[in-house]
Amino acid sequence: MRNLDCTAMIKSMTNNTLLALLITGLFIIGGCATTKEKNAENSPENRSLSSYFDYGDDEASASSRQNRQASEPGEVRAAPKVYQPKPVTFTAEDYHDLWDRIRAGYDLPSIQSKHIAEYERWYSSRPEYIERLIKRSTPYLYYITVQIEQRDMPMEIALLPAIESAYKPHAISSAKAVGLWQFIPATGRHYGLKQNWWYDGRKDVYASTNAALNYLEKLEADFDGDWSLALASYNAGEGTVSRAIKANKRAGKPTNYTSLKLRDETKRYVPKLIALSNIIKNPEKYGLKLASVANKPYFDVIRMNSQIELGVVADAANIPMKELETLNPGFKRWATDPAGPHRLLVAASSAEMVADAIAGIPQKDRVRWAHYKVRKGDTLGAIARRHGITVSSLKKTNNLKSSRISINQDLLIPLSRNYRKSNIPQQTVTASTGKTATSAKSKQKPKVISVKNGDTLWSLSKRYKVTLNELVKWNKINTNDLLFSGQKLKIWRY
Question: What percent of the residues of the chain are helix, what percent strand, and what percent coil, each to the nearest 5?
């Protein structure tokens, strides 16, 4: 009917009118085609995962599972992505607290698994455990959230350390996975986490968060944007997941997360994270009330140009040593690594004051040293053990190219705060007179004991109610030294 009407219309029109209509029609057709192309380009990508299946009935566990990552040789194939986090200059966000900000960024695809409900019941029945998780996470959670937000990753990942380590920077697994994000040594080094006598980047919340997010981004790209497979690979190793996918392809089976033949821990890994995310999203539904976490930075970063002793910072800034240790768990000794990183995390509320205090410490006083004159029979190893340091650090401090030393040679030795307190007579200035007074310890004479057959440093420490470290430091011996009958030892606290 429409074609007949058009024909009659055309016949009744002038040549000029016909030409105008034809031109108009061409524009209309072209416009429709362009609109269709744009709509196709702008159609949202379907990221939801296909059918999921339930596996396993093992009892849920309170302990976080151990992250194997690339635990098998050759599993880490790509070079680590170079990514520098944005400077830690934070701005206020329009959220009631940090939980609101985290919830707003949820983006993991939903899955169907009975393990989700299983872990929801487990978490909701343990409010004290949730409370401890939140308390432990508070110093680190804001920074983790900001870094995830800057990378446009699913915000549920901010809760992944709860699954991995329960937000314990010092957590160590049986597989030697360490830290908040549970890196094994090889994977940690691959992603730029330095590990030596002074420092373990796996425990450094600042560095390990960057490394973990780099690793997760790589895994997400390797598995074509499938976050469930990426997270499974973070737990089991990408080689393990890749082989499971290949096996399913050969068998003509689906290759989504729940269809793969994986160990039970990995099958439960993603459901466990989703379950915790659900509880954080709607705690009232599960009969819980979450403690508020401030939506503002807990710490700031102070950058320096050299090694510094944590005790020196604490004394100069008059802040608790424990505060520095909590925020800087990557430093294994009493001072930062001589070779870096040269930075400290400090509470945001006191950052400016601490920065000023550090700036006022002369370079020569940033690490306190002792002078030691080499005696007959000394070796670098013995001297290092006596002072609780490594031979390499002793050589580096004194610019020694070999282990050869000579009698009467002067050595510069960095001393820990605890070592100084245990071995060096302390002097204090009295408030009333301003005169120097010798500490009680220097006035007190040590108790000298004689070693008997069967005695060990451990048994003696228990017998005299002192620590093993105290016994070692008081007597300038090594924990591995064998005692002999009749040997004299000093005990200062009894």
Answer: 45, 10, 45
Residue 19's pLDDT is what?
Answer: 43
Tokens coding 22: 């034809």
For residue 164, indicate whether it is catalytic: yes
Q: Which of 118, 120, 164, 220 is catalytic?
A: 164
Q: How confident is the model at residue 13 (pLDDT cuts 50, 70, 90)?
A: very low
* Residue written as token pair 């899955």: 111
The token duo for 173 is 């697994």
Domain covering 441-494, topology: Membrane-bound Lytic Murein Transglycosylase D; Chain A (3.10.350)
Nearest to 339 by CA among 387, 303, 374, 307: 307
Q: Which of 110-114, 269-273, 439-443 has the lowest mean pLDDT?
A: 439-443
Cis omega (within 30 of 0) on the bond before 109? Answer: no
Question: What's the fold here for domain 368-424?
Answer: Membrane-bound Lytic Murein Transglycosylase D; Chain A (3.10.350)
Structure-block tokens of residue 187: 């994977």
Where are the CATH 3.10.350.10 domain residues in the chain? 368-424, 441-494
Q: Which fold has domain 98-286?
A: Lysozyme (1.10.530)
Convert 271-284 to b/e letters by CB count within 10 Å (16 or more is b).
bbbbbbbbbbeebe
Tell me the per-residue pLDDT of 349-407, one tens digit each, with 9 for 90 and over. Answer: 999 999 999 999 988 888 876 778 899 999 999 898 888 778 887 887 787 889 999 99
Query: Does residue 314 surpass a pLDDT of 60?
Result: yes
DSSP character for 395?
Answer: H
Inter-axis angle of helices 227-236 and 264-281, to 10 degrees? 120
